[in-house]
């Protein structure tokens, strides 16, 4: 049997294919998922320009976790319905609504893909930090075929059930919400604290929603683009335009924090030198600045005493773990995370065949018009 999907062949080369083999149960831990919706991530857009995560899959050795090689189906932000399961699967059953935590790390290489089994477990995985595995990759980015197709599959340990009261299109945003849930947890955010979010693209807006769900007293979103800033305000943030204040922008931001002396937490979701610096300077004493953005390979001027003098902390956050997905699901199912606000992040839905033209290229050419475009095999 064959299915439809979008296959990555290389930079600028994503092809719609109607003859992709449908995944079958070949491992007792397999869960086959019928895809409902799959979001196009900023990482996918970067891969469209040049292989980064897909780089190993372009070599004759293949991906470091699975050994898989191109072409492979894209897509790692998705929801779906369980279609079939392997003999050992106990966590989900056919018909369940699910999301998939798509990381691939040392345990997946050794126990699931059984690839390079002699390779020792890396220190990060040994310590329980699989999200910083030395060979970290993701389903839909080189580990295996992703969800910009009709079906996909993965190990049951990565598959999480979601209450059917949550719409499947909203479920597809649990993955990006888990990215920022991880960051908020890593920063040590506590209920009642205030926070600054720098940048209101998809990840910035998701950070706003998670902070609200976890009881932030105030969230200020700094964003120069009026369309994006207005989106943050509609979701309940205090909007701030740094361009209005020029060189005094950071000082004006600090005034919006507790007692006019800065914020407890700051999250850089933009990834440029100015926002990184501001995330530290806009903190109060003992505040925490967390970088969530993925940076290009370049340095930033950093004065160590900017951290030391008020015992601030600067930390970087990468991806997520399964526990972060569980945290987001709990917030959604409890009602603390507003389903309608999450749904408002969806600004377009397209079918698989139009996924490149009306999905990838639309986001690249009109990024300020959209937050999240979902691709569905059923459209």
TrEMBL record:
It comes from Wickerhamomyces pijperi (Yeast). The keyword Ribonucleoprotein does not apply. The keyword Metal-binding applies. GO terms for molecular function: (R,R)-butanediol dehydrogenase activity; zinc ion binding. Pfam families: ADH_N, ADH_zinc_N. Keywords: Metal-binding, Oxidoreductase, Zinc. GO terms for cellular component: cytoplasm. Belongs to the zinc-containing alcohol dehydrogenase family. InterPro entries: ADH-like_C, ADH-like_N, ADH_Zn_CS, GroES-like_sf, NAD(P)-bd_dom_sf. Transmembrane segments: none annotated. Residues 202-333 form the Alcohol dehydrogenase-like C-terminal domain. Residues 28-163 form the Alcohol dehydrogenase-like N-terminal domain. This is Enoyl reductase (ER) domain-containing protein. GO terms for biological process: butanediol biosynthetic process.
């Amino acid at each position: 049997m064959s299915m439809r999907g979008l296959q990555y062949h290389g930079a600028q080369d994503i092809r719609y294919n109607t003859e992709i083999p449908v995944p079958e149960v070949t491992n007792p831990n397999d869960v086959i998922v019928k895809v409902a919706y799959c979001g196009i991530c900023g990482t996918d857009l970067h891969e469209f320009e040049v292989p980064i995560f897909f780089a190993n899959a372009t070599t004759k050795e293949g991906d470091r976790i699975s050994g898989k090689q191109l072409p492979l189906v894209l897509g790692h932000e998705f929801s779906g319905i369980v279609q079939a399961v392997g003999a050992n699967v106990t966590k989900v059953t056919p018909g369940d609504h699910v999301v998939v935590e798509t990381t691939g790390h040392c345990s997946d290489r050794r126990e699931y893909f059984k690839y390079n089994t002699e390779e020792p477990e890396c220190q990060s995985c040994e310590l329980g930090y699989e999200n910083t595995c030395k060979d970290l990759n993701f389903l839909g980015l080189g580990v295996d075929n992703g969800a910009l197709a009709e079906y996909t599959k993965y190990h049951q340990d990565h598959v999480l059930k979601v209450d059917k009261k949550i719409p499947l299109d909203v479920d597809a945003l649990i993955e990006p919400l888990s990215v920022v849930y991880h960051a908020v947890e890593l920063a040590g955010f506590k209920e009642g604290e205030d926070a600054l979010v720098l940048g209101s693209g998809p990840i910035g807006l998701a950070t706003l929603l998670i902070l609200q769900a976890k009881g932030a007293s105030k969230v200020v979103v700094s964003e120069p683009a009026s369309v994006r800033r207005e989106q943050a305000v509609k979701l309940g943030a205090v909007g701030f335009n740094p361009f209005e204040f020029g060189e005094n922008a950071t000082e004006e931001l600090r005034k919006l924090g507790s007692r006019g002396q800065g914020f407890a937490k700051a999250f850089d979701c933009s990834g440029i030198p100015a926002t990184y610096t501001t995330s530290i300077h806009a903190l109060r004493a003992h505040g925490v600045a967390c970088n969530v953005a993925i940076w290009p390979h370049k340095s930033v001027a950093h004065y160590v005493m900017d951290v030391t003098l008020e015992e601030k902390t600067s930390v970087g956050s990468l991806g997520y773990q399964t526990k972060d997905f569980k945290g987001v699901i709990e917030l959604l199912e409890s009602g603390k995370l507003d389903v309608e606000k999450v749904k408002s992040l969806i600004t377009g839905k397209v079918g698989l065949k139009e996924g490149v033209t009306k999905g990838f290229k639309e986001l690249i050419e009109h990024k300020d018009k959209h937050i999240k475009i979902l691709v569905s095999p059923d459209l």
